Amino acid sequence: MSRNSIYKYFIIFVLCFVFVCCHCKNGFQLQRFVVVDERLTAKIKMIYKESFLKSSDKQAVVVMLRLVDSIPIFKVTLVPKSEICEQYVYDSNSRIIGYIEEQNLPTDVILLSNIDSKYVFESTFYRFIKPTTKHKQFSYIYFPVDQYVVDKNGHGLPPYFFDPFYIIFEYRENKFIRIK
Question: What is the pTM of this model?
Fold first, then answer.
């Protein structure tokens, strides 16, 4: 082998390595949902615009979809993106459903749920939101390295106080009713 061919193989190897490394993505790829019930979009926009919620590009809206006594519950809050995984997903044992991206919504809307059954979730919430075939990468949604915090001796530490502010709606008698 000549010196030029070794040099060419080396360049090809380096370019392939750089290409592979650049295409590795951090975070989760979530499925996009569209809002079918425009009243839900109006509620999310209203909460986003409320004076006590200060928006920025470092925050996202989180919608917790719950089912209590067969009544759909929507818990909505605006949170720092850096807190979504550890406090809203893993500490509360919530399931990541997907995201909503609409032109009339000013920030990411992350959908979470505590409903274990996919069938129950679909039969309850598909009248409000529907999945699409589109996906988006979210770098701030990840699996934490240390899901369980311990001290230097390996003893578990108590969780720190976490009391998020939610605006809560329930869907009853064909309308959204604010309950908190």
Answer: 0.76
